[in-house]
Amino acid sequence: MLRILNSFLISLFNFLPTRAVKAHCDGPCGVYDPSSARVAAEAVLSMTKKLLALAPPENNDSAAWATYNNTFARFVAIKEEQAQETKEELLILWTDYFKPEHLSSNPDLHETIWKAAKLCSACKVNIDQSKAEELMVAVEKIHNIFWESKGRNDEWVTAS
């Protein structure tokens, strides 16, 4: 009987549509670090600079235009993916790590993260180096608030 029930449940679960899910984390792991937001924000800034520096072909060479369009599309896709990653990492810190007691020493915490998340959206929508640089400044501020909340003064170090 147990084998029949098990077989039925497996068949049922295989039949139902599923979605891949990702989380960090609804368990009490306690592992948080703003460095992943920094790395993603750096990628946004890097791709923005590369997009602004990318020169279109000066002639009607279809192969050159295909290469240009491919490179442009790849840079945009990476920029948008990394801006979304930055936003997700910041929101994890905001919703899972920071607690009401952190607001007492950082009363602008909610607004700081909210504005940083809005900058992530601005970086996805535009190719604007000043917005990408503002995002880096915002992520650095959050980095400092985070480490201060842990009683540490970890240095802000960028990879680029």
Question: How is the topology of this model organized?
Answer:
Layout: H1 2-15, H2 35-53, H3 62-97, H4 100-105, H5 109-125, H6 129-149
Helix pairs in contact: 2-3, 2-6, 3-5, 5-6
Structure notes:
This protein is mainly alpha-helical. It has one domain (31-149): Four Helix Bundle (Hemerythrin (Met), subunit A) (Up-down Bundle), CATH 1.20.120.400. Helix content is 71%, strand content 0%. The chain has 6 helices and no strands.
Task: Write a brief structural summary.
With 160 residues, the chain is mostly helical. Helices cover 71% and strands 0% of the residues.
Helix content: over 70%
Largest sheet: none
- CATH homologous superfamily designation: Nickel-containing superoxide dismutase
What gyration radius follows from the Cα positions, in whole Å? 21 Å
What's the rounded overall pLDDT mean? 90
User: What is the count of DSSP helices, taking H or I runs of 4+ residues?
Assistant: 6
Domain unit count: 1
Strand content: under 5%
Number of strands: 0
Keywords:
160 residues; mainly alpha; Four Helix Bundle (Hemerythrin (Met), subunit A)
